[in-house]
Amino acid sequence: MRTTKTLSITLPPEMLARAAEIARREHRTMSELVREALRDYERKNWWSEMNAFGQAKAAELGLTEADVEQAVHDVRRERAGRGPETKA
């Protein structure tokens, strides 16, 4: 049984030519190029959604961007075994 499905798409001639050139230059198939583009698109949208969620949550908690950056910095220091920085 096949583990893939066939998809037919339409592209403007210029876009198809650019895609074919990229595939040729990188020694890849058009299918590989489209799969990578879809993965990149999904990854970009996931990060955008996480960013929007984080901004909404920070606003809900009354945190500023500086507060969030400091919290991230502190957690990274703790994970590195250095402990949080203290302000004088």
TrEMBL record:
Domain Ribbon-helix-helix protein CopG span(s) in chain numbering: 5-42
InterPro entries in UniProt: Arc_rbn_hlx_hlx, CopG, Ribbon_hlx_hlx
SUPFAM superfamilies noted in UniProt: Ribbon-helix-helix
GO biological process: regulation of DNA-templated transcription
Pfam family membership, one: RHH_1
Protein name: Ribbon-helix-helix protein CopG domain-containing protein
